[in-house]
Amino acid sequence: MAQNGYAAPVTPGSTGIGIANLPNQRHKIVAKRGGHFTIMVVGESGLGKTTLINTLFSTELSPPKNYKNRHVKALDKTTEVEIIKAELEEKAFKIKLTVIDTPGFGDYVNNRDSWGPIIDFIDDQHEAYMRQEQQPQRNEKIDLRVHACLYFVRPTGHTLKPLDIEIMKRLGTRVNLIPVIARADTLTQKDLIIFKQRIRDVIAAQGIRIYQPPMEPDDEQSMEHAKILMAAMPFAIIGSTQDVQTADGRTVKGRQYPWGVAEVENEQHCDFRKLRYLLIRTHMLDLISTTEDSHYESYRQTQMETRKFGEGKVKKTDNPKFKEEEEALRKRFTEQVKNEESRFRQWEQHLIAERDRLNKDLEHAHSSIKALEAELDNLQMGYSRGSQRR
Ligand SMILES: Nc1nc2c(ncn2[C@@H]2O[C@H](COP(=O)(O)OP(=O)(O)OP(=O)(O)O)[C@@H](O)[C@H]2O)c(=O)[nH]1
Ligand SMILES: [Mg+2]
């Protein structure tokens, strides 16, 4: 594969998971918070969400024996999420990792029903946690609040679709949203770079909130990492659990093509390592604390402001989600009116043209009649002259 001009790999060798290398201070925070870390994958059907999860587990995240349990939770009758739990352990240091695999939605237009429940799921986790927090016994909370949400973008090479924009907007205000380009091996490196830039432009223009690694000016190394990670967003991903043989004889996780191997863990080929590095090495804690301090807090506040004491989840009309829906409905309505209007205009134009055509026909008919009448007059005159002669 062609060189892509990325900076030299930033991710060090893959010894261990890296949690044990966290500074002591951070160790304590994680320990205090119970070390829960939850990742969710979202995106259209068939983009490789499940494959990426399996790739994470088959590389260094966790050996299969740590696949603690895998269970399926129905969101509603059409949507199911799969919840995979594993425990990461390193030097007696534990993190409870949960990965939530959501079913992909189709790319047809009216598929609210398939991604709406995903948004609800995220809100419900905040809600459940808030309720538990209000209980007198506050130990051992069940916590499935999503710390990082990977949004899969189809590798079209063009730009984000309206559907992507709509969903990403909603996700971005609720969770740490990390956009990724799915199946990056299907684009050339040149197209990938252009595609990334277009996506970044749309994200900025549409005001979509995505996760930003914190910039700490007094910490040179973290600044360096943050810059490299930001430059790679949206992360290009190749997923595969297959071991394949490279031309130079290495065995790697990758996808075999007639022209060579697209390697999962090669930073010249994709950003899988950078993403994994961000998730479980450098930014796990930041993802946890921003979820806690920013996303959960903003959910809690809106709920508290609008909810009367003793009431459950706020009334539909006060609910920010309802407002979003209302806004979307209004937009759709305006669009429909616009469409109808333009259909009407076209029809009107058509009628005018038709009227003009008929008028012309009429004129034409008139002049033919006139000509015929004149001919008739001539004939009659000829006839009377003839009969006079007789
Ligand atoms: N070329 C290529 N194919 C991939 C990649 N990742 C996954 N695939 C293939 O894409 C197909 C769908 O992958 P899944 O992981 O099932 O996709 P998904 O997003 O989980 O799909 P849903 O569960 O239906 O939403 C499979 O045939 C995978 O082998 C990738 O990085 N590159
Ligand atoms: Mg899947």
TrEMBL record:
Where do the Septin-type G domain residues begin and end? 33-306
Q: Which SUPFAM superfamilies match?
A: P-loop containing nucleoside triphosphate hydrolases
Q: Keywords in UniProt for this one?
A: Coiled coil, GTP-binding, Nucleotide-binding
This entry's Gene Ontology molecular function terms read: GTP binding
Q: Which domain of life is it from?
A: Eukaryota
* PANTHER family attached to this UniProt entry: SEPTIN
Q: Which residues form a coiled coil?
A: 323-382
Using the record, list the residue span of the signal peptide; answer none if the entry has no such feature: none
Q: What is the phylogenetic placement of the source species in the record?
A: Eukaryota, Fungi, Dikarya, Basidiomycota, Agaricomycotina
May I have one GO cellular component term? cell cortex
Please report which protein family the annotation says this sequence is part of: Belongs to the TRAFAC class TrmE-Era-EngA-EngB-Septin-like GTPase superfamily. Septin GTPase family.
- One Pfam entry name: Septin
Report whether Transcription shows up as a keyword of the record.
no
Q: What is the protein's given name?
A: Septin
Keyword field contains Nucleotide-binding: yes
Which stretches are transmembrane?
none
